[in-house]
Amino acid sequence: SSELTQDPAVSVALGQTVRITCQGDSLRSYYASWYQQKPGQAPVLVIYGKNNRPSGIPDRFSGSSSGNTASLTITGAQAEDEADYYCNSRDSSGNPYYVFGTGTKVTVL
Amino acid sequence: EVQLVESGGGLVQPGGSLRLSCAASGFTFSSYWMHWVRQAPGKGLVWVSRINSDGSSTSYADSVKGRFTISRDNAKNTLYLQMNSLRAEDTAVYYCARDFQIIDYWGQGTLVTVSS
């Protein structure tokens, strides 16, 4: 089955921009979805498709994709953006599976 | 408002069984595919299983294939996960999630602990 690889941790100064990447072969065929998860809470969808935000998600969150890499960018990071972020896509190896990335811990300094 | 409420978690011995439920409300449950996703303590999200809208098609992660069964009762707006032959490595919070071409809504999860 496919794998999606993310950097384990990144940090960003308050108000600055941070980009989180997700790499995997399935991303050549499918867009990634991105989820934010705060401690003790369920994941929340923040970006899906080419670059779509669900209702209620601030416009400082944006997504992009190129080749086998998807990216989530937070422009003007806020303290409340400190969380774990996971990418997700369908498996492209012919199996009817879904796969999540390894997760990135974002720390806002 | 979309709501997904899991129940049925708890402590079970290795080799035992447990059935999780997920009660859905706020949307037309019978129109959506559904998923189970788990998260071991301190670890990342792992996809477990999915079922299509009428229950006629299912798929499973290799790690649970043959041991877990996903099902649904559209009349009761409820998703299930029957877990048999449980192992210590199945210990996790289990989330149910709705699929609207992407996984868009998640429940709060139910904790399953497999230990003697």
Describe the protein's architecture and organization.
The complex is a heterodimer of chains A (109) and B (116). By secondary structure, chain A is an all-beta fold. Chain A contains no helices and 10 strands. Chain A has strands spanning 5-6, 9-12, 17-23, 33-37, 44-47, 61-66, 69-75, 83-90, 98-100, 104-108. In chain A, the strands form 2 sheets. In chain A, strands 2, 4, 5, 8, 9 and 10 form a 6-stranded mixed sheet that branches. A 4-stranded antiparallel sheet of chain A has the order 1-3-7-6, with no helix packed on it. Chain A is globular. The termini of chain A are far apart. The model of chain A has no long low-confidence stretch (mean pLDDT 94). Chain B is mainly beta. Chain B contains no helices and 11 strands. In chain B, strands 2, 4, 5, 6, 9, 10 and 11 form a 7-stranded mixed sheet that branches. In chain B, a hairpin with a 3-residue loop joins strand 9 and strand 10. Chain B is globular. The chains are: A mainly beta (109), B mainly beta (116). The interface between A and B is medium-sized, with 24 and 19 residues.
- Rg of chain B, rounded, reads 13 Å
Mean pLDDT of chain A: 94
Number of helices of chain B: 0
Share in helix of chain A: under 10%
Proportion of helical residues of chain B:
under 10%
Tally of DSSP β-strands of chain B: 11
The main pleated sheet of chain A reads as: 6 strands, mixed
DSSP summary: helix tally of chain A: 0
What fraction strand of chain A? over 45%
Low-confidence stretches of chain B: none
What overall form of chain B do the CA principal axes indicate? Answer: globular
Quick one: how many beta strands of chain A? 10
Alpha-carbon distance between the termini of chain B?
Answer: 40 Å
Oligomer: heterodimer
Residue share in β-strands of chain B: over 45%
Radius of gyration of chain A over all CA atoms, rounded: 13 Å
pLDDT averaged residue by residue of chain B: 97
